[in-house]
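Honest question from a wet-lab person: if I give you the sequences of every part of a complex, can you actually get the arrangement of the whole thing, not just the pieces? Trying it with mine:
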Amino acid sequence: MAERPQKRPTLKELASEAGVSVASASYAVNGTGSVGDKTREHILEVARRIGYRQNAAARATKIGRTGTMGLVVPDLTNPFFPSLAQSVIQTARGHGYGVFVTDTEGSEQLETEALAMLADRGVDGVIWFPVRDSDTSAGALANVPTVVVDRAIPHFDTILADYAEGGRQAANHLIEAGHRRIGIISGPDDILSMRQRCEGAMEVILAHGTLAFRVTNAFSVDLEPAVIDALDEQGATAVFAGADVIAIGVLRHLAATGRSVPADLSVIGFDDIPWSELTAPPLTTIDLPLHSMAAEAVEALIRKIERREGARRTVVVSTSLVLRDTVARLKS
Amino acid sequence: MAERPQKRPTLKELASEAGVSVASASYAVNGTGSVGDKTREHILEVARRIGYRQNAAARATKIGRTGTMGLVVPDLTNPFFPSLAQSVIQTARGHGYGVFVTDTEGSEQLETEALAMLADRGVDGVIWFPVRDSDTSAGALANVPTVVVDRAIPHFDTILADYAEGGRQAANHLIEAGHRRIGIISGPDDILSMRQRCEGAMEVILAHGTLAFRVTNAFSVDLEPAVIDALDEQGATAVFAGADVIAIGVLRHLAATGRSVPADLSVIGFDDIPWSELTAPPLTTIDLPLHSMAAEAVEALIRKIERREGARRTVVVSTSLVLRDTVARLKS
DNA sequence: CTGAAAGCGCTAACAT
DNA sequence: ATGTTAGCGCTTTCAG
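Yes, you can. This is the full assembly:
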């Protein structure tokens, strides 16, 4: 029971214990080189017996790869990100990679530091969901395969969704339900994906109805005064929120001020975060397929790492309408 | 602009570029050993110029520590965990550690694998939120400093909350509001923390009122038939849910069946997950101080790592009542 | 098929 | 204060 801090056996020990050279031991353990069948089996047997485990760090110095990747996201407590993270972690594990995750707390400075820290740690690649559409990497990623998710940053491989189309889908749904006087609550305007969502929506609203208002709010359920004003005063029959968190804020504000959704005001969001199906009533929204975006990102990254393929690629995935209960059909 | 895959300069290159020995270079970079002020400055200056960065893997082989820790959680998409993860990551970063996060998808087998993978990767320590109260580590953690969070696993350092007291706080609040016929919806019964919550609640319910029912549900907003039955048939005036996710499921079921909260039924949860303040109405619950538990866990872990202190410790933190709007005061 | 030996990039005695 | 050098544990030529 004396849990002695026995240090892990080394390859050399394994070799001598098995009565072979370190080379053969290494071959057996890695399945590389050539070893006789019985020799290999014997070595592996001994390895099991003495509890041999490779030393990842030593291996990494030799082969120049660590079998790890970094994931950089702005804020894990934003319900948008955990499913991204989970998906990245799972996909990476499936390929034998471990994932360092860093949370930049929405700060571009922390983002720069996080990226540098990952590069220093020698990750083989990084999946990066930037705070904004600006390149805060400060050169740290120059020699680190990287794929950027959901933001447009020049010179990086990127995986995006067709945000404009998503905005159009949302607005079209509202139009088809008979709404004509529609408001837009955008998220932060300095984010391209957000501008595209709203421009897509705007396009169809202007073509088939009128824009009641267009205001901006942080990525938060807390609504800013201008937004509340718009909601209370502008007489829209429906509103498109650029992000579900904002839409949820709208639902909450409406409930607090005694208006019922969708009877008094229809609401449609964007992202389809997990909360959205749990709101009262459940939120109609646009699905951003984060899960598959993450999986694709990891796979693309691994291809880059392993084949060191150089071509910059950007892949665009599609969004889709998720029908729930916050959009009323207006009798015409 | 030719982004040549120039490999990172090595310590040797830095040394020769600066015209000193590798030892001096190493000393300068690490701030160890002794180097003349001007020499050090010169070396650091050259390092900056040529973009020298330590090779973490090589350093790790030498000093036997990687500056990393592992975090093992059951399910990142459960709203309970992201804030834990964020807190761990932030605290770890503050101490210069990187964090491998692994998601075990609630599977004990994946948990065993994850733990082994982390040990193999040579993490300096691990923060472990086990799926259940059973030790699935299969010895992988024998020589890895570990602190377990929110579950009781023998032979490990542990950080827990006073769940029984939390259960009592919840039930007391209900009793004080005048409720006498109270139901309990427990989470999975094979989890100690859950049994303690419910036993705490039960204790005060039995002392001051009557138990309308006691049923069990998974950690999910989806309610099982037995739970729905109990809710619909047992005539409780209030219910204690062992976890907020379950409480949210109750709110949803009640809304769907046209009963209003808290007028028709009072509900109190446990955990105070982020969603809880966004439900309609906002959920009264018991705060589990996950954020500080995580920070404490990391700090305890780092103490273990750095001082290799052996004493097993378990620290217990307190819960508190979070008053919101799902508990009605009954006129007596 | 197997082994001896060189060396990955780094740290830390041990000289000087 | 600075340099020389022996490894850390591993992979991988290169001989045999």
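Two things worth pointing out. Residues 10-12, 22-23, 26-27, 30, 32-33, 54-55, 57-63 of chain A lie near DNA strand D (CB under 10 Å from a C1'). The mean pLDDT of chain A is 94.
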